[in-house]
Amino acid sequence: MRIAVDATGGDVGAGVIVPGAVAGARASGVALALVGPTAVIQAELAKIDTSSLDISVVEAPDTIEMTEHPAQAVRAKPNSSIVVAIKDVKVGNSAAMVSAGHSGAVMAAALFSLGRVKGIDRPAIASTIPTLRGQTLVLDLGAVTDPKPQHLVQFALMAQVYAQRILGLTNPSIGLLSNGEEPSKGNLFVQQVYPLLLGTAGINFAGNIDGKDVPGGTVDIVVTDGFTGNVALKVAEGTATLMTEMLRKELTATLPRKLAALFLRSGFRQVRRRLDYSETGGAPLLGVDGTVVISHGRSNETAILNAIKAAKRAVEVDLPGGIREAVAATVAKTADSAPDAPADVRQATEIGRGVDR
Asked: 3-state class of 143 per DSSP?
């Protein structure tokens, strides 16, 4: 298996991405296609032990900057590392693509080149967050900031496939993020989504989920729009950083505390590791007809290593194929029960027929 890596994306560039990708290739047993300016990549490879690894360099002289408009940049820069890496997947040279670059540009390039899984109107970025009960899958984390209600039905179906194939959950529970648990809570969008999820065959809908219940692990999956999900993720990341830094300062403030901290060091390290975004590595872009993993812009080498692992796993379990099967099964179940279902529920769950109002 070969994985294409955008070697110059992100906030830190090739100096971090190339060694992280090489470490990921060694740990995962995969081949690499490092995409970007050849001279830059080769200069970084010269500093690393690459013996016994299958690594190729794919020339891509341009880089899409974080400040550029995604779709416009993808069209204007066909030789950018993001576009070339996606095309490497499209033509079959690589099985997956990993990028810590402009997430909007990654999504645009994936949609232009790979297309969507049949029956999916909008893609979604999905990732797990640590909770008191283990981990919860949350989506969308920023791919679609202003979705339509039926798109969240599709998000739920895609998340269910991910939870089953990646997390090993047989019948994952799915909650809708709102400002209260009651069905009447939420803005107009949430109130429109609720009955659609409730009426969708084949998913275990648990109702509305209050924000405070997400870290509690009340459900296995939380679905929301990309704007809310992205804000929630960054608040969670900031809170994790705040808590670890506060603990560090308090535990080193006095000599007695320092001595006590020595005995608790392994426990604190484990907590910090659970809260560290780099342990997840990257989030798959669900709904595109190929395997694409988006990493944090400030990813370190560990994050890139784990993104390679995530990409390999997604290919092995065939996430796009699983989503395709889930959509077809849901359409079939909906067709069987359509006469007894409210019109709005039928419209939302007929996702395989291109409903998009």
From this structure: coil
Q: How far apart are CA 294 and CA 287, in angstroms?
A: 13
CA distance 75 to 77: 6
Kindly report, residue by residue over 333-354, the tens digit of the pLDDT.
654 554 444 443 333 333 333 3
Q: Which of 307, 138, 152 is nearest to 234 (CA)?
A: 138
Integer CA distances (angstroms), 245 to 59, 115, 154, 300, in order: 41, 42, 38, 18
d(CA 292, CA 286): 8
The angle, 0 to 180 degrees and rounded to 10, between the axes of the packed helices 81-90 and 103-113 is: 30
- Record the tokens describing residue 128, joined without a space: 């797990």
Q: What is the mean pLDDT of residues 278-289?
A: 81
> pLDDT tens for residues 47-66?
999 999 999 999 999 999 88
How many whole angstroms separate alpha carbon 196 and alpha carbon 155? 12
Q: Is 298 left (phi over 0), alpha (psi -120 to 50) or beta?
A: alpha
Question: For residue 270, what pLDDT is reported?
Answer: 65
Closest by alpha carbon to 158, among 138, 181, 178? Answer: 138
Give every strand in the sheet of 55-59, ordered side by side: 55-59, 31-36, 2-6, 96-99, 291-295, 282-286, 124-125
Tell me the two tokens of residue 338: 């359509």
Q: Which domains does the chain show, CATH number per domain?
A: 1-114 (3.40.718.10), 125-280+319-357 (3.40.718.10)
Distance from C-alpha of 27 to C-alpha of 19, rounded to nearest angstrom: 12
Q: Say how far apart CA 288 and CA 115 lie, in whole Å.
A: 6
pTM of this structure: 0.82
Positive/negative CA dihedral, 196, 199, 200, 206: positive
